[in-house]
Specification:
By secondary structure, the protein is mostly helical. It is about 65% helix and about 0% strand.
Length: about 100
């Protein structure tokens, strides 16, 4: 193709996002905390994931897996799952519990 990047020409950014979401959901739901394990699984069961990981998005996926492992190891509670304190919207003061 005259030096053109075949992957970049044939793949849309929206395709990458869809696959990244699939991969991160799979890792979270199945306790996959290793990029090596994910790549081996992808090679056998999800070749489209392997292509994405190898060709363009390894860094993002590796960072997600490491963060997921850290959350599991430390017992980190995500902000969305924490109990938020009631506060006065005008002053920002935290209100006492009822």
């Amino acid at each position: 193709m005259g030096g053109a990047d075949f992957y970049a020409v044939t793949n849309l950014p929206t395709d990458d996002l869809k696959l990244i979401i699939e991969i991160k959901n799979y890792c979270r739901d199945n306790g996959v905390y290793s990029l090596a394990e994910l790549m081996d699984l992808a090679e056998i069961h999800h070749p489209e994931w392997l292509s994405l990981i190898v060709m363009s998005r390894c860094y993002v996926i590796d960072k997600y897996i490491k963060s997921l492992a850290w959350e599991c190891e430390t017992g980190y509670v995500r902000a969305a799952d924490r109990q938020s304190a009631a506060f006065d919207p005008d002053t920002g003061e935290v209100l006492p519990e009822k």
